[in-house]
Each structure stands twice: as C-alpha cells, then as structure tokens.
C-alpha cells in the first residue's frame, strides 16, 4: 500500500536526504538547488556533506489559462522540455514561443537577483547533486539535469524527498544516480508530503546565497 512519509518541513527532508548521500561527504560535492523552495534544503545538504552550494535556474512553462499547471520547463540557455500531453491543455506553437520568452526573461532576472556579483559555479569534473523539494511532472528536474549535464560533471545526481512514480522513471535515465526517499502513484502535489510547507521568498534565497558567498554559516 502506498503510504507516504510526511515530512515535518523542508529542513527535516533535507537532513534525511543528506544522510542518504553521506558517501559524498568530504568529497567537495556541488549542491545545486532549484529556486526557490529547494534553496534552504540545498544549504542543509551542502553543510552536512561539507560541500558547496549554488543554484541551477530552470522554470516551468505554464499551461494556457492555468499558469500553475506545468506543460514543460526551460533552462537558462533557452533549452526546453515539454510534457507529452502538453497539447491537451491548449498549448499551441505560438503560445509556447511566447511562454518560453516570458520565462527565459524571468530566469535572467532571477540570476541578477540571486547571484549578481559572481558567475555560476562550474560543475565540471565535480559531483553535482541537484536538489528539489519534490518532483511532480518532472519537467523542471529534467531541465535542470539537462542544463548541468552539458557542463560535464564527473557525476550527476538527482536528490529529492518525494516524487511521482511515473515522473521518477522518466528522470532515472538522465542522472547517474537518483536519491528519492519516497515515490508515490497517488501524487497530487508536492505539499501533500509536508506538514509545514511555506512559500520560500526571494529575500530568503538571496540571504542564504549571500552568506555562502561571504563565507558565513559554511561547514568547517
């Protein structure tokens, strides 16, 4: 029977994830969090594994008339992944091009807000661990894995507390390793697996990344 583990919050989920990734502790892994929700988690994982924290910027492509419903995702290079059933939501070629343009601009603005004074940390020849708070359609994780794979990491890992079972199977071939604490066939939304699931604001993301850049609160 599909009985999900309910996490108290993102921090508890991140601590358990880190426990399952202890083989990478002290090997200078690069923890890449998907903003915004996964950034506090990424900090916990990076601290516990004595790794380095950065972000991988991707954004979902919203459905026509329902922007919260993902029909795909885009990365900073403009590469896009669309879900097989996206046309069922009224997606057309013109709409998709307009949505891609909107979200690509949003990604550029996020990069300027979140890491305005430095380049993204290169994952080349490093263990790169992409962290998110959950996988629903899988679109944003697929875009994130694609974005980082192009930069030639030594090992590419997907680490999530929860995932829809079908989406997880689509992700597995794209990563060298998948660390998922719970997959479910009865998956409706990521927040159903958390007792406390507040929205993470831009200010919190900026604060966490700034502390890491300036050397504060880093693992010793």
Structure write-up:
The protein has 220 residues and is an alpha/beta fold. It has six helices and eight strands. It has helices spanning 10-20, 39-48, 93-114, 139-149, 165-171, 202-213; strands at residues 30-33, 52-55, 58-63, 66-75, 80-82, 127-131, 155-164, 177-184. Strands 2-1-6-7-8 form a five-stranded parallel sheet, with helices on both faces. Strand 6 (127-131), helix 4 (139-149) and strand 7 form a beta-alpha-beta unit. The longest helix is centred in the middle third of the chain and has 22 residues, at 93-114. The protein is globular, with a radius of gyration of 17 Å. The N and C termini lie far apart (42 Å). The model is unreliable at 214-220 (pLDDT under 50).
Summarize the structure.
With 220 residues, this protein is of the alpha/beta class. The chain has six helices and eight strands. It has helices at residues 10-20, 39-48, 93-114, 139-149, 165-171, 202-213; strands at 30-33, 52-55, 58-63, 66-75, 80-82, 127-131, 155-164, 177-184.
Question: What's the helix and strand layout?
Answer:
Blueprint: H1 10-20, E1 30-33, H2 39-48, E2 52-55, E3 58-63, E4 66-75, E5 80-82, H3 93-114, E6 127-131, H4 139-149, E7 155-164, H5 165-171, E8 177-184, H6 202-213
Parallel strand pairs: 1-2, 1-6, 6-7, 7-8
Antiparallel strand pairs: 3-4, 4-5
């Amino acid at each position: 029977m599909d009985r999900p583990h309910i996490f108290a919050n993102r921090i508890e989920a991140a601590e358990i994830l880190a426990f399952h990734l202890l083989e990478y502790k002290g090997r200078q892994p690069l923890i890449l969090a998907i903003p915004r929700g996964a950034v506090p988690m990424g900090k916990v994982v990076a601290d516990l594994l004595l790794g380095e924290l950065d972000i991988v910027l991707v954004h979902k492509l919203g459905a026509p008339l329902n922007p919260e419903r993902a029909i795909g995702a885009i990365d900073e290079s403009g590469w896009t992944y669309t879900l097989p059933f996206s046309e069922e939501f009224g997606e057309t070629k013109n709409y998709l091009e307009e949505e891609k343009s909107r979200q690509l601009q949003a990604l550029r603005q996020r990069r300027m807000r979140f890491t305005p004074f430095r380049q993204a940390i290169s994952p080349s020849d490093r263990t790169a661990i992409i962290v998110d708070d959950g996988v629903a359609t899988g679109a944003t994780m697929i875009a994130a894995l694609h974005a980082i794979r192009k930069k030639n990491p030594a090992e590419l890992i997907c680490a999530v507390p929860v995932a829809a079972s079908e989406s997880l199977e689509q992700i597995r071939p794209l990563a060298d390793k998948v660390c998922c604490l719970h997959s479910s066939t009865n998956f409706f939304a990521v927040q159903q697996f958390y007792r406390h699931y507040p929205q993470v604001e831009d200010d919190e993301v900026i604060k966490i990344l700034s502390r890491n850049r300036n050397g504060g609160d880093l693992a010793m």
